[in-house]
Amino acid sequence: RYRKNTYLFIYYLIQFCGHSWIFTNMTVRFFSFGEDSMVDTFYAIGLVMRLCQSLSLLELLHIYVGIEPSHLLPRFLQLTERIIILFVVITSQEEVQEKYVVCVLFIFWNLLDMVRYTYSMLSVIGISYAILTWLSQTLWMPIYPLCVLAEAFAIYQSLPYFESFGTYSTKLPFDLAIYFPYVLKLYLMMLFIGMYFTYSHLYSERRDVLRIFPVKKKKV
């Protein structure tokens, strides 16, 4: 158990540092360059964001082997959303990387992750604070739907470029073909279905955590 908690603490710490660096960098750049900083957000911090999101796939393994107490499917849906948007939609299209929606998405993602990883990092060493627990279980309520809307808008803005350049579209044997813009439109509908399922799960989890929280208000 000590080795498990040590590993999880280091993992959460690395993720917290990565997302904190991204958020701090974006904030400093915005106050230094104003709206111009939003255009090249991806060029400035895209690499670190991709590293953090790639590393987050380990969380599926954590849940599968039982070292992190959570449900696999809701986490899988959340991570899949980000991986598809970041690596398939944004990274593959330079024109999309310059859109303001990329900056908005990164702000939402990092706000949620900074709070979540801080809460998780302290929890594995037996420390909890009322305000942090409440924030980690409540902040997602307004921000997660906004994330999904921003992700949907990013897909919408990317469609003309996928149509023009034919990225990921391919011909198959027997006169069949995969037209990737249709795949994205189909995923766009699935995105909102997944949001309903994930929101319901997170709400149930919030209710359970806040119900037992008064018993373990602060533990050192």
Automatic annotation (TrEMBL):
Protein's pathway: Lipid metabolism; fatty acid biosynthesis
What chemistry does it catalyse, as a reaction equation? a very-long-chain (3R)-3-hydroxyacyl-CoA = a very-long-chain (2E)-enoyl-CoA + H2O; (3R)-hydroxyhexadecanoyl-CoA = (2E)-hexadecenoyl-CoA + H2O
Domain of life from the UniProt record: Eukaryota
Intracellular or extracellular location(s): Endoplasmic reticulum membrane; Membrane
Task: Say if the entry is tagged with keyword ATP-binding.
Answer: no
Give the E.C. number(s).
Answer: 4.2.1.134
Alphabetized Pfam families for the sequence: PTPLA (PF04387)
Which EC main class describes this enzyme?
A: lyase
List keywords of the entry alphabetically: Endoplasmic reticulum, Fatty acid biosynthesis, Fatty acid metabolism, Lipid biosynthesis, Lipid metabolism, Lyase, Membrane, Transmembrane, Transmembrane helix
What do the Gene Ontology cellular component annotations say?
endoplasmic reticulum membrane
Which BP terms does GO give this entry?
fatty acid elongation; sphingolipid biosynthetic process; very long-chain fatty acid biosynthetic process
Membrane spanning stretches: 7-23, 131-156, 176-197
The protein's topology relative to the membrane is: Multi-pass membrane protein
Query: Which family is this protein grouped under?
Result: Belongs to the very long-chain fatty acids dehydratase HACD family.
The entry's function note states: Catalyzes the third of the four reactions of the long-chain fatty acids elongation cycle. This endoplasmic reticulum-bound enzymatic process, allows the addition of two carbons to the chain of long- and very long-chain fatty acids/VLCFAs per cycle. This enzyme catalyzes the dehydration of the 3-hydroxyacyl-CoA intermediate into trans-2,3-enoyl-CoA, within each cycle of fatty acid elongation. Thereby, it participates to the production of VLCFAs of different chain lengths that are involved in multiple biological processes as precursors of membrane lipids and lipid mediators.
**Protein name in UniProt:** Very-long-chain (3R)-3-hydroxyacyl-CoA dehydratase
UniProt organism field: Crocuta crocuta
